Amino acid sequence: MPFRAGLEAVLIPLAALIFSMVLFGAVISLVGVDPLAVYALIYKGAFGTWFSWQNTLRQTAPLLLTALCVALPAQLGLVVIGGEGALVLGGLAAVAIALAVEGAPPVFVQFSMMLVGMTVGGLWIALAGVLRHYRGVNETISSLLLFYIAVAIMNHLVEGIMRDPASLNKPSTRHIGDANMIGAIPGMDVHWGLVFGVVACIVVYILIFHTTIGFSFRVVGGNLRAAKMAGLPVGRLIVISCFIAGGAAGLAGVFEIAAVHGQANASLIAKYGFTGILVAFIARHNPLAIIPVALLLGGIEASGGLLQRRLDLPDATKLVLQGIAFVVILASEALFGRIRFFQARPA
Amino acid sequence: MSSAIGIDIVGMTKRFGPLVALDHVTLKVAPGRVHALLGENGAGKSTLVKCVIGYYQADQGDLFLAGQRRKMLSPRDAHAVGIGMVYQHFTLVPNMTVAENLVMARASVPFKINWRREREKIDSFLQKTPFGVRLDDPVTDLAAGEKQKVEILKQLYLERRFLILDEPTSVLTPGEADEVLGILKDMATNGDITVLMITHKLREVSAFAERVAVLRSGRLVGEGDVSDLDVHDMASMMIGSRTLPTPVDREARAFPPTTSRQGLQIRGLSADDDAGAKALREVDLTVQAGEIVGIAGVSGNGQRELVETLAGQRNASGGKILVHGETYQATRREMAAKGVFCLPEEPLRNACVPAMSVAENLSLRAFDRRPLAWRQWWLRKGAIRQMARQQIARYNIKPPIPEMPIASLSGGNVQRAVLARELAPEVTLLVVANPCFGLDIVAVAEVRRALLEARNRGVSVLLVSEDLDEILELSDRVVVMFNGKLVYETPIEDADLAVIGRRMAGH
Ligand SMILES: Nc1ncnc2c1ncn2[C@@H]1O[C@H](COP(=O)(O)OP(=O)(O)OP(=O)(O)O)[C@@H](O)[C@H]1O
Ligand SMILES: [Mg+2]
Q1: Per the structure, how many domains does chain A have?
Q2: Are A212 and B367 a contacting pair at CB < 8 A?
Q3: Is residue B21 in contact with ligand 1, taking CB distance under 6 Å?
Q4: Which residues pair with B269 in a beta bridge?
Q5: Which numbered atom of ligand 1 lies nearest the CA of B398?
Q6: Most buried residue, A34, A210, A279, B130, by most Cβ within 10 Å?
Q7: Which of B361, B332, B402 is nearest to B341 (CA)?
Q8: Quick check: is A285 in a domain?
Q9: What's the pTM value of the predicted model, to 2 decimals?
Q10: Domain of A230?
Q11: Prediction ipTM score
Q12: In chain A, which residues have their Cβ closer than 8 Å to the Cβ of B355?
């Protein structure tokens, strides 16, 4: 990528983010709180201490994976926003398989959880791909509806046959057992999901830009007519990309279960799938750019608690910031190619 | 009607990165005349007029209007002083009527449109122009020539007095082109408008333009009165010291014994158009190895659907396609195994990924095979770049930068890139649609030569073209398509222009 174009891809989203922080500050001052204090607190809660760094990284892990669920189909021109559904079902499937093979060696249980969780998540989003290609159903709508169905399925099972009778006021499944839990990365209080997420981003980047199937994805996304003329199996490519994407979100669900909650219940629906959409859009669907962006938004997520405690701001404050950022980022897309500085100039 | 205006372009320079697209171009465009702008593909013609209209900002140089310096920061500034542009592709809203398109094009459309008053205005405006168009027809129903007339009419209705036309006739038949250009010339002679038109067709320049200017590699290399120049002079100004490729002869057909003689067989093929109406009606056609079959016809009679079905972009609703005697379903594997290639019209829209690089676009056919891929799944970027360098050199694609997004190439250079890709050595069946649209004279000669060479090698070529001269020059057999059917067929030796013309009109 030419230098100026690269700069454009970094600076425009960055400027948009800063602009949304300013807007957010304006909203905050309307509530009568000093925006500078809020910024300082966000920084402190996100990156101020080793403790908050770990907090941030724990939030980052699922965001990396759910952002991939958006960024990969985006290469084919698809806007998939239902990653949360794949996350929920992936997590639920992980619990189911862990309980089914109870007593097996932990490594085997953990491996099965990942395999099954990713497969179920993958199939869930692939369904949106199938509907899109073979029935012409808009994938944005269908993936969103599939999220609601996923939640209904989870509630049905968690309150029904999978319910642990001992869970009284918060219906939950049985715990998968402490031995089967995936532990923390040595030296920090952050689970292995972070490493898997970073590796997944790198792998997907390589997939998109260095393999023939990634090339096919980009051709389909860039011009469907040219893809057909080249004889590319468009339908199959759509379904495959959705399957991989759903697999990533499903893996996020597996870690939520196997590294955080240990059992499936309403806490599984933490909306990482939706924040992941924001991450992917700010990263302009570039898997490597997802890594720093997920860190940034993970930090904002992590600082929510501090804002609540210190300034008595509602937990929804961070949603306000995310909402503003999302709108501003989408609007800033229109700036690409319009700013003269970034256009090629005499060398 | 207000009177024509002229412009002076002085020392205009435009660079795209290291590339100098315009190099101190100074050109006087006097009012009330038809000016032609000539030049090879990538010479900078479009860039020059885009700088005039304010679509690009020139790096240096000035624009004078009636002696006054003007800065065009956007096309809106140019419109405000009466400069308008007609693009090569149509900009009309297809499912609105002609009248609606005219009203909606105005810079300020009122919130509530008083259609009766508008209608009266348009009617009285039409009286003053020599264009005969039906105001209530939806634009979709119009032929290409009529659409182009409406585009021009729209400019006049918006009171533009300086019209820039970028290859306005490339989508028109010679008859349509003559009509449109004739009207423009008369209006210019009347002093109503000034016309600056870009074209590759020297015949049109001789017939309709008064002044001609020639660009080569961004520089103005010649200008003069058309009356002083013949086609030959203009051609040599354009290409400089380069020479036109010598035409090849159509050799007597010698069939290579290994290929089956029936290259392409189409049996009862039907297909629908985008709106779901029948566009192809049980077409039967055979193209033998080493034969060029030309399909003549007025555009919109099913040619596009035929090409798209063969290219794999459209599903057939009935019938079948056989290639070398076997059923063909336009899968990637079949294309590669059987050597089926395609050169569709509007290559940037049909055969390229605009945002991807020239190198990536050149590898669209073979990226998943050796030598461009390792084990069918790993892209060998080095090999891709090297292949692209070779093709760029061989087909003289400019600028020679493999990493450049293909959308930033000039129209003719996009066409060359697709040509380079589709004329692969392994081709045995080539489906071609209007291959010379937008190409300069050198490139036209090269393309025709390449097609004949392919034929002489034993390739089956199906040539769909709206240019009858091209069909007559290249084909071994001519077929006429009308209303989705093949209605007439003749070997080239017996081809009679009058009969073909009548069959094209449906008689
Ligand atoms: N937006 C752009 N970015 C980079 N290079 C460009 C851009 N637009 C044009 N060019 C380059 O400038 C040169 C002149 O292009 P231009 O479109 O003016 O050619 P042209 O004379 O109109 O050719 P054609 O007959 O093929 O339409 C070409 O080499 C082209 O690749
Ligand atoms: Mg041009």
Answers
A1: 1
A2: yes
A3: yes
A4: B283
A5: 29
A6: A279
A7: B332
A8: yes
A9: 0.85
A10: 62-302
A11: 0.86
A12: 222
